[in-house]
Each structure stands twice: as C-alpha cells, then as structure tokens.
Specification:
Elements: H1 5-15, H2 22-41, H3 54-72, H4 82-95, H5 116-134, H6 138-161, H7 174-186, H8 203-208, E1 223-231, H9 235-242, H10 248-251, E2 255-259, E3 270-277, E4 280-292, E5 296-303, E6 307-318, E7 321-332, H11 335-370
Antiparallel strand pairs: 1-7, 2-3, 3-4, 4-5, 5-6, 6-7
Helix pairs in contact: 2-5, 2-6, 3-6, 5-6
C-alpha cells in the first residue's frame, strides 16, 4: 500500500490548534531545561575525580533508555505506551519518510518535538532521583540528574537538526550529518522497527547489533546535470504534467516506454521505464519519494549497468508563468561504466536533457492550453 505523504501532512497541519506557537514550544523546553540544569550544577562542590565517572555511566544509561523506549514503546503498540506509539509511529513516521525528511515551517516542529509537558514529567523523576542520591553523595546526585537532563535536551536538539534540509549549514556538520543519515534510514518502512533507534549517539544500536548504515547515492561518484526552462503556465499545472510519468515518452528523447499509473504520481508510487540514454539502452525501476503540488517532485531509480539516479523537478512561480528546474543526479557502480560516462555518455545525456526541456515547454503549453488541469486527460 502506498503512502501519500503530502496528504497526511495536509491533514496533520489542519489539525494543529490555531494558537499553537512553535517558538513558545521549543523555547519553553530549552528554558525550563536550562533552569533545571543550572539548579543541579549549582549543587556541585569540590567534585572528586572518581565522582566524574558518574557522567559517562549516566550517558550509557540514557542511551539505553532512549533505545529501549524508542524501540519498545515508539514502534510497538502496547497498552502502556499507546499514546507514544500513535504520536511516533502513527504521526511522526507518516509525516517524515525516507527521501522527505525536512520540515517546511516552524509549525511542523509540532510533530518533531516531544509535547512540552513531557519535560515537566521527566524532571519530576530527575528531582526524585537527585533527592534520593543526595542522601548518599550530593555530587553524584547532581551529576547523574544533570547528565540525564542534558541527554533529554540533546535528543530534542539533535532530532530537530536531523530534519533540517540537507544543504543547511548545521546539516553539514560532521556528526549531525552522520546522525541525520542514520535517522533517515530509520525512517525507511523496512527498517524503522528494527534499526537505528539512537538519535544522539548510536551506542546501544552498536552494542545490540541494530546499527544500519548505507551511504547516500549522492556521496558516491555522481554526475549532476541541471537544466531549466520558462513555461507559460501555472506551477501546479506544469508540475502535474511533468510528474505524469506515462507522458514522458512524448517529451523526453531518452524515454521509450513507461509502465505506471496515469496522472501525477504521489510519494510512495512505483513505476518502470525503458530508456535509451547516452547511446545505451536500459531499464529503470522507479520509486517516487516526494511530491509537493506546484513545488517539488522527486524520484529515485535503479537500473541496468549498475545505474542509480535521483531525479528532481522544482517549480517556481514567475511573471511569465513557471520556472521549471530539472536536476538529474546519476552514477554507475562499475568502473567500466563510470569511465564510459566520463568519456562519452555524460555529454550525450546532457544534450538529451537540454532537448527534453525544449520539448517539455512545447508539449506542456500545448496540452495545458486545451483545458483546465482537472479536465486534462493525462493518460
């Protein structure tokens, strides 16, 4: 069963209370957490060397707790964790899927951050632990509680960073970039119940054998080609036409035949295509990963000759209609094909892509002009 991410996002956003303020939400959590941290730290006095060992011990304990709660309550439906399961697997993993992990406005933090009241509940437990441990050793009590609270705040911050756009400066920081990739893999439907449950540091995933890593296709030797064209029609109609893959053979010189569903394809859709690109025949198996009407459409494919590619369509409204940008990123797993691409194929594929933009403009303006998009036969 395919999942329409955009439809779910629209429903979820419509259900957010009009008075919800994302900045107040995040600000309260950080401010309250910082206040509690200051309280615990203020009770430290002349900490001895052995007492500092409480910090790594508490971090291991926090990593175990994060892993266990995430796996056993967030991804397993139980009576005790029913609300958490609905909010996490039901909402968060439907709102964010692999290939579409970024939030689009501050109000989307509602589905990323824990409820604001949870840090109050969490701090009650920490203050209880601090009080009990302080009967034995005040420094141990303060270090233990402060470390667990810092872990909670780190989880909130890291989780928000892991849903930033890939080109954001914070996303390019080495550790954030690494954890962001692990978290995206966790959001794959085939991995979310079994792998990558740690979000700050994957200690427990490593110890328990649930750590899963795959490099981004873009991190391999990828060729990137980008072309754009001005189309005298509105963005929603243009993207709907371009994302109707059964019509690709009409305007793209490399597309020979497409076996798929008619109409613009939503995220989660799959289709097959026969191509002749760069002088070589081949076959591609496609998966649509993103569709924001009038804005963006993205799909990935694997094909013959060890080919992997990512195709992105982006639309921007202009005075004359739509600025349509097509970005193709592709690479080959074999050395021979990489060499052939560098010597011959890249130039041919670039020319074919440029030609496709001319044909798309011509065909889209001709087809869309005949009738409004809701009446257009996109078969």
């Amino acid at each position: 069963m395919s999942h329409d991410t955009q439809a779910f996002r629209d429903r979820y956003r419509a259900g957010i209370h009009p008075l919800y303020n994302a900045w107040a939400h995040g600000g309260f959590v950080l401010l309250y957490g910082a206040t509690c941290l200051a309280f615990f730290i203020s009770h430290l006095e002349q900490v001895e060397a052995w007492e500092w060992l409480v910090v790594p011990a508490a971090l291991v304990f926090f990593s175990w707790g994060e892993y266990s709660i995430h796996k056993n309550l967030g991804h397993r439906k139980t009576r005790l964790g029913g609300m958490f399961y609905k909010r996490h697997t039901g909402d968060h993993h439907s709102f964010f899927v692999a290939g579409r992990m970024t939030w689009e406005s501050a109000r989307d933090w509602r589905v990323i951050l824990f409820p604001a009241w949870l840090i109050l509940f969490y701090s009650v437990g920490l203050f209880a632990a601090w009080w009990l441990l302080s009967l034995i050793n005040a420094n141990v009590a303060a270090l233990f509680s402060a470390t667990l609270l810092a872990g909670y705040l780190s989880y909130e911050v890291f989780h928000a960073c892991e849903h930033l756009p890939a080109d954001h400066p914070i996303s390019r920081l080495p550790w954030i970039r690494h954890m962001r990739r692990l978290h995206e893999l966790h959001h794959r439907r085939d991995l979310m119940q079994t792998h990558n449950f740690n979000l700050v540091f994957p200690l427990m995933d490593w110890l328990k054998g649930s750590l899963h890593w795959e490099p981004l296709e873009q991190e391999r030797a990828m060729t990137r080609l980008q072309h754009e064209v001005e189309i005298d029609r509105g963005p929603e109609r243009v993207l709907a036409y371009a994302a109707t893959v059964t019509r690709w053979p009409e305007w793209h010189p490399s597309s020979l035949r497409v076996d798929g569903t008619a109409g613009p394809l939503p995220a989660g859709s799959h289709f097959e295509e026969d191509i002749h690109a760069g002088g070589r025949a081949g076959h591609l198996s496609w998966a649509v990963t993103e569709f924001s009407p009038g804005r963006r459409w993205r799909a990935t494919a694997r094909g013959t000759h060890g080919l992997n590619l990512v195709l992105t369509y982006e639309c921007e409204s202009t005075a004359s209609g739509t600025r349509f940008v097509r970005t193709l990123e592709y690479g080959f797993s074999g050395l021979a094909m990489r060499l052939a691409n560098w010597l011959v194929m890249r130039g041919k594929i670039d020319r074919e892509s440029a030609e496709s933009m001319k044909r798309l403009k011509e065909m889209a303006e001709r087809a869309i002009e005949k009738a409004p998009v809701h009446q257009l036969d996109l078969v």
